[in-house]
Write a structure and sequence with these properties.
The structure is a single chain. By secondary structure, the protein is of the alpha/beta class. The protein folds into 2 domains: 158 residues, Beta Barrel (Lyase, Ornithine Decarboxylase, Chain A, domain 1), CATH 2.40.37; 249 residues, TIM Barrel (Alpha-Beta Barrel). The chain binds pyridoxal-5'-phosphate (PLP). Pyridoxal-5'-phosphate binds next to helix 10.
């Protein structure tokens, strides 16, 4: 994504952000469509370069919509969904059901029935009870992976750690429940055991934990004589929010991961499996920004300055939830000096903060625009109607095109389901 000031005004790929907000309003999510496509292509080229049998599934939860799904299909991506709603969105976009796999630690009976009826390609079974439930509901053979828990602690926020022993996700390889679930899958009527899946956590910046997981998993596979056709290593590849973050090095990292896989397969004499990965954040996060309009600017002399914007935790929950940090740019390159400022939302919570101690122009005032970077993943998808805020509009831009992909919610839609 290239953000540049042209005539003192911030532009994304040549499009004036102020111009976009005049047309689509604020808050506005703006995606660089080429950046989305480019990330998909980078993943493909790593695996293609190694001549591997592989698939890249995008984790819908990072950001999904009909146009996003269409773009993903054009980029030869597969899709990971975790709810009836994510599945419905994908199918409405015409995405082939056979290229979708269904995750979730508590899939409901209704969701399983819906996914079976739609002919979903693969279920990732996450619990002992799900083996029996899925087997009972299926009236023809279904391919399944088992979500295993390799017991790896990764150095990331505890809310987004998932592969450690004490977790609601997956079945442990250490305590034997993973093996037991696989035995049950083998003895079921309709379930075809295809392999295993694990997901270590999110925002991981180096390949270390992935290499470690491979060692643990291959040792376990060889000690249990479990045959896997598919090995799904999950997602979690880190992105840059601020200069403190280290991006997961896609090319170098995967070349080391694949090298490790090859040597482990040799060492344990295990047939090389079909490799799946599920990046979400690393496809979408850095391709998106949010543009807000500034309203009240409140100076508390000698204490701090609050710059309020016309959105907040209803479209940006990661700061309140994880204390996540962001970079904020002014859309109009102001003159004069910058001062320390807190950028806050308009919702009724003190925790409704976008960023603290950011440097913003002293003369920032009502009507100015600011852009918050790296909001393409886990922002729109985590948006809520708290305070009856309307979900923002989303636009995709390329060099020579701008298209609205999600319209702003209307006031009327807020009471659509209300009984009157
Ligand atoms: C969240 C999740 C992903 C994607 O994680 P990112 O950090 O967005 O890459 C992939 N697989 C599973 C099972 C997940 O829960």
């Amino acid at each position: 994504m290239t953000l540049t000031y042209i005539n003192d005004e911030l532009h994304l790929n040549g499009h004036s952000l102020r111009g976009l907000t005049e047309q689509y309003g604020t808050p506005l999510f703006v995606y660089d469509e080429d950046a989305l496509r480019n990330q998909c292509r980078r993943y493909h080229s790593v695996f293609e370069g190694e001549s591997l049998d592989y698939s890249i599934s995008y984790a819908s939860k990072a950001f999904t919509s009909i146009q996003m799904v269409k773009l993903l299909e054009e980029e030869d991506m597969k899709l990971d969904v975790v709810s009836a709603g994510e599945l419905y969105t994908a199918l409405e976009a015409g995405f082939p059901a056979s290229h979708i796999h269904f995750h979730g630690n508590n899939k409901t009976t209704e969701e399983i029935e819906y996914a079976l009826e739609m002919g979903i390609g693969l279920f990732v079974v996450d619990a002992m009870d799900e083996v029996a439930l899925l087997d009972r509901l299926a009236d023809q053979p279904v391919d399944v992976l088992l979500r295993i828990n390799p017991g790896i602690d990764v150095n990331t926020h505890s809310y987004i750690q998932t592969g450690q022993e004490d977790s609601k996700f997956g079945l442990s390889i250490q305590n034997g429940t993973a093996q037991e679930a696989i035995d049950r899958i083998h003895s079921s009527n309709q379930l075809n055991f295809k392999g295993v899946h694990y997901h270590l956590g999110s925002q991981i910046s180096e390949e270390g934990p992935f290499l470690k997981a491979l060692e643990v998993v291959f040792e376990w596979l060889s000690s249990t004589s479990i045959d896997v056709e598919i090995l799904n290593m999950g997602g979690g590849y880190g992105v840059r929010y601020t200069e403190e973050d280290v991006r997961f090095p896609i090319e170098e990292g995967f070349s080391r991961i694949i090298g490790k896989l090859k040597s482990l397969a040799d060492e344990y004499d295990i047939a090389f499996p079909h490799i799946m990965i599920e990046p979400g954040r690393s496809i979408a996060a850095e391709a998106g920004i949010t543009v807000y309009e500034v309203g009240v600017v409140k100076d508390i002399p000698g204490v701090s300055r609050y710059v309020s914007i016309d959105g907040g935790m209803s479209d940006h929950i990661r700061t309140p939830l994880y204390d996540a940090k962001y970079e904020v740019l002014t859309v109009d390159a102001g003159e004069g000096k910058n001062i320390d400022s807190h950028v806050v939302g308009k919702l009724c919570e003190s925790g409704d903060v976008i960023g603290k101690n950011l440097s913003l122009p002293e003369n920032i005032r009502r009507g100015d625009l600011i852009a918050v970077g790296t909001t393409g993943a886990y922002h729109y998808s985590m948006a809520s109607n708290y305070n009856q805020m309307r979900k923002p509009a989303v636009v995709f831009v390329t060099e020579d095109n701008v298209r609205e992909v999600i319209r702003r919610q209307s006031l009327k839609q807020l009471v659509e389901n209300d009984v009157i």
